[in-house]
Specification:
It is a single chain. By secondary structure, the chain is α+β, with helices and mostly antiparallel strands. It has one domain: 2-Layer Sandwich (60s Ribosomal Protein L30, Chain: A). It has five helices and seven strands; from the N terminus they run E-E-E-E-H-H-H-E-H-E-E-H. Helix 1 runs parallel beside helix 3. Belongs to the IspF family.
């Protein structure tokens, strides 16, 4: 007997983002302001975690990337808080009948050391994505001096169908 096919499936997404660092810019990671003498040079607030996470969520549905929705050549997005980008993208995920089930992010930054900010970033990401903190994995790495003026993040998300929306997808 053949297995019954289901339209509900688990999805994964992958995204990454990077920015040069410069004096006079703030450093935002996961929606948290991190004390630093340098920050991301970007059209928005340059939060590489939220950018990579948003691209990962979009990639799970083949919906392009955040530049498709918030182009960096459009002055209306200048200085945009990346939290807003994530909120828009999360609504697209929900509109497709899914929600985040788990996320992981690897941030590469030589300085400042991010260990002291881990709990705040993890808590904020969990809050923004509606996840328990134990479902938010963060890894911090340095470039070993290869990219001292650079911040980068790679993110993966696991998406699960919203249980009360299962009937809507059939």
């Amino acid at each position: 007997m053949a297995e019954k096919s289901t339209t509900a499936q688990l999805l994964i997404g992958y995204g990454e983002d990077s920015h040069r660092l410069g004096q006079g810019h703030e450093l935002w990671l996961g929606g948290v302001h991190v004390e630093s003498d340098r920050g991301a040079i970007a059209h928005s607030d340059g939060d590489v975690i939220l950018h990579a996470l948003s691209d990962a969520l979009l990639s799970a549905f083949a919906l392009g990337d955040i530049g498709s929705y918030f182009p960096d050549n459009d002055p209306k997005w200048k200085g945009l808080e990346s939290r807003v980008i994530l909120e828009v993208v999360l609504q697209k995920v929900r509109d497709n009948g899914y929600r985040p089930g788990q996320l992981v992010a690897v941030v590469m930054l030589d300085r400042p050391k991010l260990g002291p900010s881990r709990a705040a970033i993890q808590q904020n990401l969990a809050l923004l994505c509606g996840l328990p903190e134990k479902r938010v994995g963060l890894t911090f790495k340095t470039s070993e001096g290869l990219a001292p003026d650079h911040v980068q993040c790679r993110a993966m998300v696991y998406l699960e169908p919203i249980p009360d929306r299962q009937g809507d997808k059939g």
